[in-house]
Amino acid sequence: MRHPRILVFAGSTRGGSINARLAAAAVKELALADAEVTRISLADYPLPIYNGDLEDEHGVPEPAKRLVRHFLSHHGILVVTPEYNASIPALLKNTLDWMSRRGAAGQPYESPFRNRVFAISAATNGQFGGIRALMALRPILELGLGATVIPEQLALARAENGFGENGSLLDEHDAGSLRRVTTRLIEEAVRYTL
Ligand SMILES: Cc1cc2nc3c(=O)[nH]c(=O)nc-3n(C[C@H](O)[C@H](O)[C@H](O)COP(=O)(O)O)c2cc1C
């Protein structure tokens, strides 16, 4: 089997982020399954809040262009999002908004959201595991950005108690869900390596 390149990032830049921990657990799973994994932090891609005047004056900021290039060089993308007020954090939405601007890819325009496959997951300390954030993120990616998102997803509830010392998920059901996400993501990403 070919080894697809998978990019993983969390929609939180907080030190000790539970979503960053879930992203790290997914990276392990993906690497064990022989994917070539790149994990990035949005902290390394600082962006102003999107404003059309700013874009007209200065164009798309360099960090958004770098992110676009990262997406373009991978076959699969896993986004692990926190839930803020029943949706996704402004950080993640703002990042996707900047990346969706045509100038972000240079000319000719190549969408960083098409011709690759996406997976989404979430972690919260509450009992619903960020399911509402996932319900918000899926249509943004699919309807707004034209992405293909696999149906498998993990909404990790009570995440502060969910990780063992080695960073793996303690609950068997959650671990199984994460494995289904990473396995399907790899399967679908392989198609784009052909
Ligand atoms: C502005 C804000 C809104 C939040 N809204 C929700 C929410 O709707 N549902 C939920 O389960 N947790 C909510 N939380 C709690 C987050 O899930 C929690 O802070 C989590 O640790 C954030 O993810 P992180 O650890 O990856 O940074 C909210 C937190 C903040 C700061």
Can you tell me about this structure?
With 194 residues, the protein is α/β, with parallel strands linked by helices. The chain has a single domain, classed as Rossmann fold (3-Layer(aba) Sandwich). Helices cover 40% and strands 18% of the residues. The protein has helices at residues 18-32, 52-58, 62-72, 90-99, 131-144, 172-191, and strands spanning 5-10, 36-41, 76-81, 117-123, 148-156. Strands 2-1-3-4-5 form a five-stranded parallel β-sheet, with helices on both faces. Strand 4, helix 5 (131-144) and strand 5 (148-156) form a beta-alpha-beta unit. The chain starts with a strand and ends with a helix. The mean pLDDT is 96. The site of flavin mononucleotide has 14 residues, from helix 1. One of its GO terms (molecular function) is oxidoreductase activity. InterPro entries: Flavoprotein-like_sf, FMN_Rdtase-like_dom, NAD(P)H-dep_reductase. Pfam families: FMN_red. Residues 4-159 form the NADPH-dependent FMN reductase-like domain.
